[in-house]
Amino acid sequence: MAQATFLKIHPDNPQPKAMAQVVDVLKKGGLVIYPTDTIYGLGCDLHNVRAVERLCQLRGLNPAKAQLSFICSDLTNISEYARISTQTYKVMKKALPGPFTFVLEASSKVPKIGGIRRKTVGIRVPDNAICLSLVEQLGNPIVSTSIHDEDEVVEYTTDPELIYEKYRNLVDLVIDGGYGNNIASTVVNCENDEFDILREGAGDIQEFL
After folding, report:
1. What is the overall mean pLDDT for the chain?
2. Strands 5-8 and 173-176
3. What is d(CA 39, CA 183) in angstroms, rounded to the nearest whole number?
4. Own/partner pairs for 176-180, CB < 8 Å, 24+ apart?
5. How far apart are CA 81 and CA 98, in angstroms?
6. What pLDDT shows up at residue 64?
7. Could you check whether the bond before residue 97 is cis, i.e. omega within 30 degrees of 0?
8. What phi, psi does 190 have (nearest 5°)?
9. Which of 103, 139, 150, 209 is deepest in the core (most CB within 10 A)?
10. Three-class SS state of 52
11. What percent of the chain has pLDDT over 90?
């Protein structure tokens, strides 16, 4: 496998030509590392089964059991892949885009992963122009998982150049969208409109309840 492309993209004004290059990699089944509004993520096209399997293999995950989240572009995009009650919709409308992962009941449009159809799905709409532009241009969500650091103290690598050094022989493209954060998203279970916090992270859901 050739070394990954290292592509610098302005975080506030993603260049169309550069974004088209990333989308082309995703459409061909490639793995891409990209910035979000929290930590850097590793992602691929949701509808490319082989790419999803490759992503799981890289992260040491069992595809049938992996709890992968999706990056969506907006609430309309989310409603295609998840069932959202009126109460949950109102909260999400206020909270997104933002540093949250909402666990929702999956719709029939969510493809099988590892041969298993998911009952629930974690969905993100990050407040990051690069991320949102990617999903919009691809035309469907990106399967996403976080980039972990092997350091026991530093859980997430924030420097895209260091990320590239580590992953350049494992993925197809790394976006340099500036330094990332080292706090992951807050994960909120929205089943039954309970808004249970499964993981404390960068966002405070209480502000929107």
Report:
1. 93
2. parallel
3. 6
4. 176/6, 176/7, 176/8, 176/9, 177/9, 177/10, 177/11, 177/34, 177/35, 177/128, 177/130, 178/11, 178/35, 180/35, 180/36, 180/38, 180/39, 180/40, 180/156
5. 19
6. 83
7. yes
8. -100, 10
9. 103
10. helix
11. 82
With contact defined as beta carbons under 8 Å apart, do 110 and 124 qualify?
no
Instruction: Determine the average pLDDT of the residues in 90-110.
Output: 96
How many angstroms separate the CA atoms of 7 and 102, rounded?
30
- Cβ neighbours of residue 87 under 8 Å, at least 6 residues apart? 193
Residue 41: predicted pLDDT: 95
Asked whether the predicted pLDDT for residue 198 surpasses 70, the reply is yes
User: What is the predicted pLDDT for the residue at 18?
Assistant: 96
What is the mean pLDDT of the segment spanning 49-57?
94
Tokens of 90: 């109102």
Calpha distance 157→99 (Å, rounded)? 17
Which two tokens mark 152?
């026991």
* DSSP H helices in 15-139: 16-27, 49-59, 75-81, 86-95, 129-138
Q: 131 near 70, Cβ under 8 Å?
A: no
pLDDT at 154: 67
